[in-house]
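Bench log, entry 3. Co-assembly request; chain sequences pasted below exactly as received.
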Amino acid sequence: MNSTEGLISHLPNDIGGKDADAINMEEHPMLPWEKRCHALLDLLATHQIVNFEERRRGVENLGTEIIGKLTFYERLMISSVNIMLEKRILTPDQIANKTKEISERK
Amino acid sequence: MTVPDHHDHDHDHDHDHDHTHPGVTKDEEPYGYYATLELAVRELLIEAGLITADEHRRQIEILDSRSPVLGAKVVARAWTDPEFKKRLLADGSAACEELGITMYDGTHLIVHENTDQVHNMVVCTLCSCYPRPVLGLPPDWYKNKQYRARAVKEPRAVLKEFGTTIPDQVSIHVHDSNANMRYLILPLRPAGTEHLTEAELADLVTRDAMIGVTVVKSSLVQTNRGQA
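Structure output for the full assembly:
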C-alpha cells in the first residue's frame, strides 16, 4: 500500500482492525451538558431531523484531526449542526444570533 | 465547522473567567462553547416546532431510567426461565418488552448466548452503537479508539486487559453493532448458583459481562452476603 492509499481506503471512523494502544479503562462522569446533548441527539434521530447514519457521516466529514481533538459529544454536536446546516433546517445566522442572545441573557 | 462564534471576546472557554452565562443552569461553569451551542440549537428547533421542550425533558428522564440493572434483570430471567430464554434468543426486543423494557430508540436487540464452546463480545467499530435501552449509556472505553480498533483484531488480548482469559478451545465471536442492530450478551450462569433466587442472580450480573468483556462470577454473591 502506498503512502496515500491508507488515507483514502478508510474513512476516519472506520478503525476496526487497526493497531491501537492499550485500552484506557478510566471513565468520567457524564457532564450535565453532555446529557442534554445526548437527549437532543436522540430527539433529532426520533424525528428524522438527523438520523444515526447522517450523524456518523457528519463526524467522518470533520476529518481525522478534529475527530482526534474533540470529545465524544463535541464531535456529535458539531456533526449534527453541520448536517442541519446542510439540510437548511438551520442557518449560520440563526445559530449566531441565538448563541449571542443566550450569552447576553440576564 | 461553520457555526460562527458571536461572543464579544475571543477566548477559549476552557479557562476560568469571572463572567457568567445567565439564563442557563449553574451546574457547570464556565458554560462552554459546546454547551451554549446545544442550548441554541435546541431552542431554535423548539421555536421551529420541530421538537418540544417536554420531549427533551422526557428524553433525559428516559436516559436516567436506563442502566445495567435492566439488562441484569433480563439475564437473570433467562437463566431461570428456559421458555423466556428461548424467546429472548429468538427476538431480544420482544422478550425485553415482556419485562417492560421498551426499545425506546427504535433499535432491534439481538441476544447472543455464551456457551462452553463460544464466548461473545460486542463492539461498535464505527462509532458507539450500544444496547442503551437495556444497559444505559456506554462506558468511555467502549467509545474510545483503542477498544473499537482492537476488539475485532485481537479479542483475546483485549479481553486479557479486562482480566478475562477465555480458554483456547472456546471460540470468540465479536459482534459489530450498527445503527439498527444492538447486541446484548447472555453470559454463562456461574456454577454453584443453583440455590440463588432470580433477584440474587441479577445482582451477580455486571455491565461488562453483558458487553462480553468479562464473565459472571459467583464469588460476588458470597461477598455481598458477607456484607449483608
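Helices of chain A lie at 5-9, 32-46, 52-69, 72-86, 92-104. Chain A has a mean pLDDT of 87.
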